[in-house]
Specification:
10 strands; alpha+beta; 333 residues; 19% strand; six-stranded mixed beta barrel
Length: 333
Amino acid sequence: MAGFTRIANLFRRSRIDREIEAELQSHLEMRIEANIAAGMPREEARRDALVRFGNRTSTRDRVAAADAALSLDSFVRDLRHAARQLLHSPGFALTAIVTLAVAIGANAIVFSVLNALVLRPLNLPGPQRLFTIQYQGTPFNSYPDYRDLRDRSRAFDGIAAYIVNNAGLHMGDRAERIWIYEASGNYFDVLGVKPYLGRFFHASDDRGPDSNPYVVLSYACWQNRFQGDAGVIGREIELNRHSFTILGVAPGGMRGTELFYSPDLWAPMVDQKQIEGTSVLEDRTARGIWLVGRVKDGITVPQATADLNAVANYMKKTYPGQDEGAIFSLTRP
């Protein structure tokens, strides 16, 4: 009986994995097509979609873990019902129960994942006022453009910038690859979140290139890699062999500004050269930065868009040959 159960579970798990994989692939392809329709080249559209969806293996693992807890209770109830039905019509009852259990279970799990990762808004204060700022229909902006929009827009409480990247984390004799946000100094202030431990970095900490050697850990990173040690504040780590001091820990549940991606830590964007080995923060034509803005209370999306494009007109006149085609729009993160 135990052997039969393991075989049955194997087939069920395989079926559910295929269902989840197909659903995630469908949403990935829809994101790619939406990016292409917005004017992005296919490879760039695919890269953006893959980054926003994050690690799909990790996503499937989280679903499997949730499914395991759900399935045990469901299986016990189904088994009791099946036992009663088998007494009356063994063949038909067994076939019907297995078919319905697999179909309903798979659909419930897939919907739960999509509800958590797609339909649910960002776990941030006032998410309805947060928007991604697009340049000519793509989410990619330059850092100089970001500074102009941040300083000259009037319809936003704040505009922040970030880049999704990875880096080598070195702690003593250990080294591993992690995912990070390179974020502007005002990132956490624009999002309106408070640290769980220590403090966040702020715009006042940015004083030029490589001037802000601090990092903020995600809650999960703090728990998993530092065992939830409250004494971690002030400790030094290395990102790509450059020293950074741990400044704070983000609250639990904060995933940043992408539903499909959860970083291990946040590092200041002004330290891009130390993290990546090169910096394009002064290149107005180097567009690979995402912007998120918090629209002021009482300001509509058309009003905020018009405000951004008033800044775009300034940019066209001020930087001829670099921002002549600038036009901005808003989408949900």
